């Protein structure tokens, strides 16, 4: 377990901004807070800055402005981008899981499924081979992959299985914060539904704080407690997921919701 009590602030981002070369806006003045046990969705159309913001939160992309603070096990909020690189990597490694949209970006394709799952534990010092194998099989089972596939490489798995493998790898250390970038994008609807169901149960069990990026409002409705709506690199609306979806205030959110109803 993460050791965090429910409803304890896990991540706080304030006024985060990132511009790319040529003055291209990635995201601007974005603030977000999330507590343990909460699922927050970030929604918006393609190019609205969802991935950029998530990468700033997860330590992958240094923002130009703003502060991203992450709570450690000793209960201190650490401004991740002010830490020395080594400290930042250590903090993120032990507290944050990241699920990429494309499984191959989050998996090592040349090692077995089992090695993919337990590598984060090995990196933090676990050396007992039989224990690692047992943990790998338990996690395969958790994400509904037959444990007999522990020695197979990810390339022999379907897209949905690879995504479930990536989810197992991101959760094995029981992170206090899970960041997911369109985790079911590009998968068949039936495969999506199974993965979403699985995620809902795992997240509840682990009591992690989850930031879920999606362009799919149906996915947000299914998993999220709160949501933030992004447009052109800025947050235009946020609130309880049901409230935002049932009674959207911003014209852009109204458009998104009505296009979902038409789909
Ligand atoms: N590495 C990059 N270099 C230049 N521009 C980028 C880069 N990553 C994202 N952008 C730009 O930032 C904006 C937001 O992109 P992104 O965060 O990927 O949006 P989303 O995830 O919502 O589709 C887009 O205009 C995109 O072209
Ligand atoms: Mg994206």
Please give a structural write-up.
By secondary structure, the chain is an alpha/beta fold. It has a domain at 9-105 and 176-262: P-loop containing nucleotide triphosphate hydrolases (Rossmann fold). The chain has helices spanning 50-57, 85-95, 103-106, 113-123, 129-142, 159-171, 189-206, 217-223, 241-246, 251-262; strands at residues 9-20, 24-35, 39-43, 65-71, 77-79, 96-99, 177-181, 209-214, 226-231, 234-240. The strands form two sheets. A six-stranded mixed sheet has the order 6-7-8-3-9-10, with helices on both faces. The longest helix is centred in the C-terminal third of the chain and has 18 residues, at 189-206. The mean pLDDT is 93. Bound molecules: adenosine-5'-diphosphate and magnesium ion. Residues 20, 24, 26, 44, 46-52 line the site of adenosine-5'-diphosphate (ADP). Adenosine-5'-diphosphate (ADP) is lined by residues 20, 24, 26, 44, 46-52.
Features:
single chain, globular, 4-stranded antiparallel sheet, 263 residues, 10 strands, 25% strand, binds magnesium ion, alpha/beta, Rossmann fold, binds adenosine-5'-diphosphate
What is the top-level CATH class of the domain at 9-105 and 176-262?
A: Alpha Beta
What small molecules are bound in this structure? adenosine-5'-diphosphate, magnesium ion
CATH homologous superfamily assignment of the domain at 9-105 and 176-262? P-loop containing nucleotide triphosphate hydrolases
> Which architecture of the domain at 9-105 and 176-262 would the CATH scheme give at its second level?
3-Layer(aba) Sandwich
The fold-level CATH name of the domain at 9-105 and 176-262 is Rossmann fold
Q: If strands are numbered along the chain, what order do they take across the biggest sheet? A: 6-7-8-3-9-10
Number of helices: 10
Mean pLDDT: 93
Strand content: 25-35%
Global shape: globular
The tally of strands reads 10
Kindly state the percentage of residues in helix: 25-40%
The arrangement of helices and strands along the chain is EEEHEEHEHHHHEHEHEEHH
């Amino acid at each position: 377990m993460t050791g965090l009590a429910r409803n304890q602030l896990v991540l706080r981002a304030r006024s985060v901004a990132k511009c790319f070369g040529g003055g291209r806006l990635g995201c601007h003045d974005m603030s977000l807070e999330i507590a343990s046990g909460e699922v927050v969705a970030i929604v918006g159309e393609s190019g609205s800055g969802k991935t950029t913001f998530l990468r700033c939160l997860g330590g992958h992309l240094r923002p130009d402005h703003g502060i991203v603070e992450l709570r450690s096990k000793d209960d201190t909020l650490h401004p991740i981008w002010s830490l020395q690189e080594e400290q930042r990597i250590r903090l993120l490694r032990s507290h944050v899981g990241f699920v990429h949209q494309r499984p191959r970006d989050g998996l090592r394709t040349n090692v077995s499924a089992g090695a993919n799952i337990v590598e984060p534990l090995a990196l933090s010092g676990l050396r007992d081979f039989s224990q690692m194998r047992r943990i790998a099989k338990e996690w395969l089972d958790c994400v509904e992959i037959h444990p007999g596939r522990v020695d197979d490489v990810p390339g022999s798995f379907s897209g949905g299985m690879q995504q479930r493998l990536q989810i197992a790898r991101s959760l094995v250390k029981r992170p206090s914060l899970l960041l997911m970038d369109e985790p079911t994008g590009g998968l068949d609807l039936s495969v999506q539904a199974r993965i979403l169901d699985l995620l809902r149960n795992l997240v509840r069990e682990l009591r992690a704080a989850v930031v879920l990026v999606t362009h799919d409002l149906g996915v947000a409705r299914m998993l999220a407690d709160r949501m933030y709506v992004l447009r052109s690199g800025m947050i235009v609306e946020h609130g309880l997921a049901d409230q935002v979806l049932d009674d959207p205030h911003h014209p852009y959110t109204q458009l998104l919701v009505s296009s979902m109803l038409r789909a």
